[in-house]
Write a structure and sequence with these properties.
Elements lengths: L9 H10 L19 H14 L7 E7 L5 E7 L2 E3 L2 E7 L3 H8 L2 E8 L4 E11 L2 H10 L2 H8 L10 H17 L8 E15 L7 E7 L5 E6 L2
Antiparallel strand pairs: 1-2, 1-5, 3-4, 4-7, 5-6, 6-7, 7-8, 8-9
Amino acid sequence: MASRVPPRHSGAVRELLRSLPALSGDVLPFEPGTAPDDPLTLFADWFAAAVDARVPEPHAVTLATADADGRPSARVLVLKDVGPDGFAFATDARSGKARDLAANPRAALTFWWQPVVRQVRVAGAARYLGPEVSAADYLARSPASRAAALGVRPGEPLGSVAGLRASMAAARRRTDAEPGFVLPEWQAWVVVPEVVEFWQGSADRAHVRLVYRRSGDGSWARSLVWP
């Protein structure tokens, strides 16, 4: 009979949660009245400020998707570019997020930069960028990154970690031997923003939320909303 480890009492977890500090970072100054007309310009400014403040991995972002039945899913990935079209990332066509986006091409992104108490939220349509852009993205990655993508089968049952490592080692040998090889399943995507929210936290809970909304002609309207 398998031994059972008693779970930590839910009350203890609750007390632990309530004992933790929140909004403990160093708040940066933000004057929404002087914000630029384009949210991508403000994002670039905030991102540079996060890098300057040594925020760990500021390019990590939570991507939220939903399948054809509306079941949501979220995961953290690495942002690859921000440009006029939007926020770019890449994935394997066999992954859950790629399947979600193929069935329901809308997505949301959330950046959380705790050391500066800032959050950026993006929502909009997701668009596959095609095989040429996808191949260029794949080849621009490091050999280790390309081998990691080649050596896995996203979401399939895995017998052991040893099997994973063996597959990745074989993938690295192939990547080194064939530097021009492109994983056929590799896909580059972009989230075209329709709404972008900039959230500046405050220790007194008077959080500032500046929301940009894209209109039909492509221009942006911005306004403050209550926290």
